[in-house]
Structure formats: C-alpha cells, structure tokens
Amino acid sequence: xxxxxxxxxxxxxxxxxxxxxxxxxxxxxxxxxxxxxxxxxxxxxxxxxxxxxxxxxxxxxxxxxxxxxxxxxxxxxxxxxxxxxxxxxxxxxxxxxxxxxxxxxxxxxxxxxxxxxxxxxxxxxxxxxxxxxxxxxxxxxxxxxxxxxxxxxxxxxxxxxxxxxxxxxxxxxxxxxxxxxxxxxxxxxxxxxxxxxxxxxxxxxxxxxxxxxxxxxxxxxxxxxxxxxxxxxxxxxxxxxxx
Length: 243
Known about the structure:
alpha/beta, five-stranded parallel beta sheet, five-stranded antiparallel beta sheet, elongated
C-alpha cells in the first residue's frame, strides 16, 4: 500500500522535519507541502491526499477549522506543541495526534495507524452492508477512538443518537461503542430488513425486540421510546409476527 500525503505547517523547521520523515518512509508519497491552510485549500482539490499532517495553530485559518473542510476521504494527523487540543482532534475524527517536537518513532506510529486504517477501509468497502446475492452481511465497520472497529450485526441491540455521536449498544457488553457518525448515515449502512427506526434518536434490531411495554421497547433496564411518527411501522412489523 502507498499513501499520498500532504503537510501543512506555518513553521518552516517543522515543515522541513516532516518532509524529511515522509521522504524516508517508503509507504508514503509526498504530494504537497503548504505553509498555511489557505494555501492548501487552493491546491488540495487538484492534488488530493490520503493522509494530511496538519498543524493546529496557524494564522487566518487554524488546523481545526480547516479539518472540517477537508474531504472525508482524507485522514488527518494533527501536529501541535500544545496537548490541550487532543479532545478537539477527536471531535473532528482525527486519525492521530502528534505532540511537537515529533520524533520519527512517533511519526511512524501514526503512519502505521494510517496504513492499518486504510487496509481496514478497503476491506470494509469490499463488502456490502445490505443483502447480496441472497446472503446478508454479518458485520460492519465503524470509526471509534481513532480506530476502525468491526461489529457483528447479530450483536447489535439498538443504536442511540446523541448530538454529535451515536452509541451502539451490543449484547454482552456493558459499555456501548461511540462513533462520530449521524443517525441518518448509520441507518443507511444497516440492512433495512433487520433494523427499524423507532424514534429520532433510536434504531433497534427487529429480532432483538422481546418485550414492548406501554409503547416502549425493553432491553433489560433500558426502555426505548417509540415516537408517533415511527409507531405504525413498528406496529406493522409486530402484526406480521403475532399469533
């Protein structure tokens, strides 16, 4: 695998150091170096990168702001001298976060993480999330905590939507998996014959519905509300299985 990468940093020394790291790393091909996000914004559409090493503190347009404008196909590794930006890096779904001064060992750790991510992404893209030739897919991949995680569809109880994230609640796991994806995007990834939207903030797996109590779906101690706009669809499913 070979990844196209670009570097954005307003500090010439930091820019030169990362450029030297890229040039001695066989898996990387440098497709651009930029001293500002504004400069990169003009060039990246014509010279797209798989991986972007992005400084956070820059004039005019900082790295966090620019990261929200980058193609979703580009993975971002933030570089900064201040570790207070780590949580912000997670919020924009960065692949990794490197604290200056950056050693080659730390750089390679981020590169290896990127290679692993793209390998998993290729594997995920080679599978369809819906039925194919009569055989339903058994799992999906989601991004969580800088990683791609494989989730077996059979283990999903329900999915809960928050403001910026979703929580995927699984059988046999106390803590849900958090992922930076919208409910609408997640719903499109799931096979419609297995999952049903019952509320603006909840998607449940049909075959996991064991108890419905006073208009709420019960999973152990958790009660999932069913909103009026989705009630009829759920009722239609239940009616198909009532004896």
